[in-house]
């Protein structure tokens, strides 16, 4: 019998805290609270079908999307956890019209970090028992500590992120995150409610055989994307590639990191700016993908260099294995 076991996420966070110069432990506490909220949401996701949590909530968010009950639940859990623990000064969420400024009980706030999140990604999949996720992005505020946060603190380019991650509520629940020192994945043991390090130092292959795109929109795609898809389907070299599209970004990205592949959500005549949101979907995923050795762009330039102008800004997204994304970009340039 062996007593060896993997490191827990809690242990890992404490160990890595020392990697940051002058770290006060604030970022560690922040990631710890996301870990707690993830467990609560994971538990609820696994109850879908047993408790009244599937289906529409009956309202639309600011982007005109139908909110699902679980969107609202996950949003509340993450926000309440972050507020209760008094560890951030501001939160922006897909499900909130505007950013939230957070003050301590005495009205002050000396915290340095803001969190941007997609509390439940792929929520239309929940009703049909398909994986969903959460995405988060963390920045240091740019306005002075102690003052109320402003839009400026949230409208930062992805390169300024100090940490980012996602949680995938799949056949198991996994939390994957980076603080700029590689990407690490932890799997939840639901029996004891603990995340264990299962995927240290995750890397995405430079090449892959999977392309993930909603091909139902094909006729609306830009010519460059159409041509790239024909290239993927051509009988030549290691092609044709295979197509896999779950329809929840987190799950599609997670699979492509593990297996190699490209994910594309381009502009289209239906969605001229793309569909995915720069600040809480594309930037955090881009940070993870780059840390894993991949590439993320808008079809032309690195996603993390895009200067944001709006909280819920949309952007076209090309992301995954480096050589595949570069190939798609070649077609876009033509
Ligand atoms: P969300 O559930 O947070 O609104 O995100 C849905 C997103 C993303 O997860 C997914 O990749 C994409 O929408 C799917 O869009 P289509 O149904 O247009 O393919
Ligand atoms: Mn989403
Ligand atoms: Mn969402």
List the helices and strands and how they pair.
Elements: H1 9-17, H2 26-45, E1 56-60, E2 66-68, H3 69-84, E3 90-93, E4 100-101, E5 113-121, E6 132-140, H4 151-154, E7 163-169, E8 173-178, E9 183-189, E10 194-199, E11 210-212, H5 223-233, E12 242-243, H6 249-259, E13 261-265, H7 278-291, E14 295-297, E15 317-320, H8 322-333
Parallel strand pairs: 3-5, 11-12, 11-13
Antiparallel strand pairs: 1-2, 3-4, 5-6, 6-7, 7-8, 8-9, 9-10, 13-15, 14-15
Helix pairs in contact: 1-2, 2-3, 5-8
Bound molecules: 2,5-anhydro-1,6-di-O-phosphono-D-glucitol (AHG) and manganese (II) ion (2 copies).
Binding site for substrate: 121-124, 214, 245, 275
Subunit structure: Homotetramer.
Binding site for Mg(2+) 2: 118, 121, 281
Question: How would you describe what is shown here?
Answer:
It is found in: Cytoplasm. It is built from eight helices and 15 strands. A hairpin with a 4-residue loop joins β8 and β9. The longest helix has 20 residues. One manganese (II) ion binds next to β5.
Number of strands: 15
Major β-sheet, in short? 8 strands, mixed
Based on secondary structure, the structural category is alpha+beta
Q: Are any ligands bound, and if so which?
A: 2,5-anhydro-1,6-di-O-phosphono-D-glucitol, manganese (II) ion
Say which CATH homologous superfamily of the largest domain is assigned: Fructose-1,6-Bisphosphatase, subunit A, domain 1
CATH fold topology of the largest domain: Fructose-1,6-Bisphosphatase, Chain A, domain 1
Task: Provide the gyration radius in Å.
Answer: 19 Å
Unreliable residue runs: none
Based on CA inertia axes, which overall geometry fits? globular
Instruction: Tell me the span between the first and last alpha carbons.
Output: 61 Å
**Helicity level:** 25-40%
CATH architecture of the largest domain: 2-Layer Sandwich
Cofactor: Mg(2+)
Binding site for Mg(2+) 2: 118, 121, 281
Domain Fructose-1-6-bisphosphatase class 1 C-terminal: 204-333
Subcellular location: Cytoplasm
